[in-house]
Amino acid sequence: MRLFLIASLILAVGASTELEQWETFKQTYGKSYKSIAEEEKRFTIFKENVEHIAKHHEKYKNGESTFTMEINEFADMTDGEYNALFTFQPIGSFKDEYGLKNVANVRNLPTSVDWRKKGAVSELVRSTGGCGASWAFSATAAVEAQLYIKKGNLTLLSPQDLIDCANATFGNHGCYEGSAINAFNYIRRFGIVSEKQYGYEARQGACRQRGVGVRISGFTKIPSYDEQSLLIAAATIGPVSVAIDASSLKFYRSGIIDNYSGCRSEFRYLNFEAIIVAYDADSWTLKNCWGPYWGENGYFRLQRNTNTCGVALRAAYPVL
Ligand SMILES: *[C@@H]1O[C@H](CO)[C@@H](O)[C@H](O)[C@H]1NC(C)=O
Ligand SMILES: *[C@@H]1O[C@H](CO)[C@@H](O)[C@H](O)[C@H]1NC(C)=O
Ligand SMILES: *[C@@H]1O[C@H](CO)[C@@H](O)[C@H](O)[C@H]1NC(C)=O
């Protein structure tokens, strides 16, 4: 009897904790559901995700993983639903004459570089606000950095300009899919204006202006699978836009995502873009566009030299 009482007390405490966590989650991310049935379904998924995160935490504590996880805005989604948010597929075969250059071979590279410390990366970590245009944020940050490196002036440029104007003609589809390389092609031809001139709306609309602002002369596409060239570019040129498989970012909180984290390293799984802003002996540091509260203050790290999440498959930087 006594045992039974204690057991049910523990159960009750456990249950209330989960409910409390659920309420906190809903409040934090402004979640509301159409029906009680829908909320029950979401709560069930949430509990499964909480358990998954707890199991991952055990692995981390046992030294079997190099990164940590936390509950975030994706905690009421299944993996399938999360992956469906990202529909980016590799587009084109890089036949563009402006994209085919080799990175010069450089020896004696620094063991670590951080373009944030050099002032080439805006302190603002942007948020896509539910629009899946990571490609536009990656491209914008890359051009901002080159402008800073060449001209010493860090000006926020407009991802919305790209979302609206670097459209299907350039192989991009607004909030659904696109690539930084396609965006560079657009910026080469038409330019990109500042954030001030063309504010963010988190949806695709009609192109408001075209053919002004900053132009680039082209871009350099780093040969796929060539992580040494990627390193040379990240050390000597500046931040590099990359495509990855985003599946390991779902509950990422901190640390280094490795080649065994579940993300895949093949072309057909690339579904997201970010930008390499730093590296050290073990990892790449990438800036994301999910706001400053996600991951390591908006950033995440990937293991180096294992093509983790496909980071070395589709990397490029703009040339002013
Ligand atoms: C930096 O760029 C902005 C926008 O293009 C411009 O208004 C400003 O004058 C520039 N500042 C410097 C120091 O060049
Ligand atoms: C892309 O935008 C341009 C300029 O607004 C427009 O003329 C063109 O029709 C658009 N192309 C597509 C495929 O939507
Ligand atoms: C990455 O992990 C996969 C298995 O998930 C393995 O097949 C592959 O060889 C690894 N790649 C490297 C470069 O370690």
From TrEMBL:
Keywords: Disulfide bond, Signal. InterPro entries: Papain-like_cys_pep_sf, Peptidase_C1A, Peptidase_C1A_C, Peptidase_C1A_papain-like, Prot_inhib_I29. Residues 109-319 form the Peptidase C1A papain C-terminal domain. Transmembrane segments: none annotated. Residues 1-15 form the signal peptide. This is Uncharacterized protein. Residues 22-82 form the Cathepsin propeptide inhibitor domain. Gene3D superfamilies: Cysteine proteinases. The keyword Hydrolase does not apply. SUPFAM superfamilies: Cysteine proteinases. It comes from Acanthoscelides obtectus. One of its GO terms (biological process) is proteolysis. Belongs to the peptidase C1 family. It comes from the Eukaryota. Pfam families: Inhibitor_I29, Peptidase_C1. GO terms for molecular function: cysteine-type peptidase activity. The keyword Signal applies.
